[in-house]
Amino acid sequence: MQTHNLETEVLVALRRIVQAIDQHSSRLGKEFGLTTPQLLVLQTVANTKEQPIRAISAEVNLSQATVTSIVDRLERRGLLERQRSGTDRRKVFLVITDAGKELLMKAPKPLQENFLHRFERLREWEQHQLVFVLKQVAEMMGARHIDAAPLLDTGEVTRGHQTQETLPDSEPADPVGNQ
């Protein structure tokens, strides 16, 4: 009987994790018209000066092609702008707009920020133990082969140029009707 309780507890814990990620992603999409990768790109641009897409993609740990697609969508919404360098016209940098800054002030932090803040407060041996256990869980779920970016988001997000069923920056429903 004890085994059954442990099995139930682990499945409930996994389901809670999935639901927390799904609820956060859903709220971000419904209330702010953003996906987690879009929010991360917007935050990264806001926190850096004159960074090209290549540097932004390295910072958020997504492929340059994925970030370019995300930037295109954010630019169409007026949240980001591409600006040419004053010293080298070949260089293009990303700059957050006032509308982008306003949206960032209202939007919730990415789920992984809260998680990482708490994770960093754990003792080093606890961090290692947690990583070990989560890797075991991923293995047990047959997810070892999945190339995943370090984002807590629903949908498939990959770091490389692999074919994806769901693009990581697909547009969620826009709550105010702006397309």
Chart the SSEs and their pairings:
Elements: H1 2-32, H2 36-47, H3 53-60, H4 64-76, E1 80-84, E2 92-96, H5 98-106, H6 111-121, H7 124-140
Antiparallel strand pairs: 1-2
Helix pairs in contact: 2-3, 2-4, 3-4
What does this structure look like?
The protein has 179 residues and is mostly helical. It has a single domain, classed as Arc Repressor Mutant, subunit A, CATH 1.10.10.10. Helix content is 56%, strand content 6%. It contains seven helices and two strands. It has a two-stranded antiparallel sheet with strand order 1-2. Strand 1 (80-84) and strand 2 (92-96) form a beta hairpin. Helix 2 crosses helix 3 (53-60) and helix 3 (53-60) crosses helix 4. The N and C termini lie far apart (54 Å). Residues 156-179 have low confidence and may be disordered.
